[in-house]
């Protein structure tokens, strides 16, 4: 029996193409930074066709999310909601880097550090109103790194 299988016209018998990139994001403090275009650039530069993209942010006080990209008020409301869920004055024991330190860790745990996004014809298959965002949870500006890993077919 053959080891190769086909699902919806995609063969799994061939070795997949992979590409890895690093995206550096400079933040200004708390908020969502749209990285959708930079992720699309990484896919294009990595010769991505159809496959799966994994994004991973290498920090414990920043996270990744897919959110609405039409109304800026949504991003502000999300930051406010996270502040209500993990307030500074909750009596945290860990405060080595200041009063925003532990709340930032909690917010990262709630929102997550990785995303998986299907890719079709070299583009992330986002909905009409979706964008990919790095979420900064600390008060001061930071330089954050997102690692992208695409696996699938090459163009």
From TrEMBL:
Pfam families: YjbQ. Gene3D superfamilies: YjbQ-like. InterPro entries: UPF0047_YjbQ-like, YjbQ-like_sf. PANTHER family: UNCHARACTERIZED PROTEIN YJBQ-RELATED, UPF0047 PROTEIN C4A8.02C. Belongs to the UPF0047 family. This is Secondary thiamine-phosphate synthase enzyme. It comes from Methylopila capsulata.
């Amino acid at each position: 029996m053959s080891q190769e299988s086909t699902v919806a016209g995609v063969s799994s018998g061939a070795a997949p193409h992979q590409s890895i990139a690093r995206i550096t994001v400079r933040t200004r403090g708390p908020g969502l930074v749209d990285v959708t275009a930079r992720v699309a650039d990484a896919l294009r530069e990595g010769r991505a066709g159809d496959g799966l993209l994994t994004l991973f942010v290498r920090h414990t006080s920043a996270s990744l999310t897919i959110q609405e990209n039409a109304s800026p008020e949504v991003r502000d409301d999300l930051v406010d909601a996270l502040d209500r869920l993990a307030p500074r004055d909750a009596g945290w024991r860990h405060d080595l880097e200041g009063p925003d330190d532990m709340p930032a860790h909690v917010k990262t745990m709630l929102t997550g550090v990785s995303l998986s996004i299907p890719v079709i014809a070299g583009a992330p298959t986002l909905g009409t109103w979706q964008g990919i965002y790095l979420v900064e949870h600390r008060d001061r500006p930071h330089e954050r790194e997102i690692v992208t890993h695409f696996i699938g077919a090459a163009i």
